[in-house]
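A favour, since you know our structure tokens better than I do. What I am after is a single protein written out in full by you. Could you add the entry underneath, on a fresh line?


***
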Amino acid sequence: MLLKLSGRGLRALGEVSSRPFIGRISTDVAQRGPNEIWLARGGAGVPDGFRAYLLAGPRPVMPPRDSYALGPEFSYLSDGDVIRIEPDRGAVHAIYRRNSRTNSLLVTERCNNYCVMCSQPPKDRDDSWIIDDLLQAIPLMSPDTGEIGITGGEPSLLGPRLIELVRCLGQCLPATAVHILSNGRGFATGDLAKALAQLHHPDLMLGIPLYADVPEHHDYVVQARGAFDETIRGILNLKRHGVRVELRFVMHAETYEGLPAFARFVARNLLFVDHVALMGLELMGFARTNLDALWIDPLDYQRELREAVETLHRARLRVSIYNTPLCVLTPDLHPFARASISDWKNAYMDECDGCALRTQCGGFFASSTLRRSRGIARVRLG
């Protein structure tokens, strides 16, 4: 089931702040400070010196300022998590979860593509405050974090503020990999690619979607004329400046037939990219709206997928299959499958119970219940 990361889930227990604020969850009284939020479970006490208080159990007779009863839907919050509290709405947003391997920072909801299967439909509004919040939140994150994703919308629309954000990540979390999801168009001209490279981040990669080997098909999928040419120029510009690039190809009814030609195009023209990810469809946002036009059972494009993987693998490119359970892939594709679905929207079906491959399988998007492959089955060995 989907983990709720944002929404109403707080009830004020007295006087509260008038403006939103950001803080880090703590259950250690020694960590009191202006950016720490005390989390009390059961009958735990309420020490002074914290920015705010979340109470998941009995409340004190005289609660401190900024005390809130925490709803059960946010019971997963724990030490080291970084959250944003909106007192006037009684809302909480989990910006970062310390124990998760899949933390992503939404940096804007604006985008210059309008992809037919977009899981996060764009919104044309001023959301520049998001970067201000993230610059406060990043120093509170654990330096042991393995990877942080940056997503949108389209991050390159931020221009210099994207550079500011990546610089902050490099300074505060120098051992943390950063993966930016971008359509690549913003790096086609200007100095943005060069500025990103000049940060010399030790572990940075851009994931850029390319949905065809010809402009008209890619431009149709992203609903933006000229996007293919700008995306290709963006990829070339990033690689020219030494920035690592991952190509992404989402498989659905409008793209699957082009998989073999896409793979040949990449093997002939983009052999210098660092990774190619062939991705199953997430049935959210526009993909859900356009479900009848986009849905195809993965069983029905195994031939095209196998041919694409073989072409890319023979070209010595790193290739992975994302968002696709093992039971709907032919066995020869299993070595390329990765457990890629973020934990907060990851799910398993009844057939997964007792499956011999469950520990190796990435499972499903929680939204996958809208359409089921006829290949979903419990695998038994021997």
Notes: The chain has a mean pLDDT of 94. The longest strand covers residues 33-40. The chain has nine helices and 17 strands.
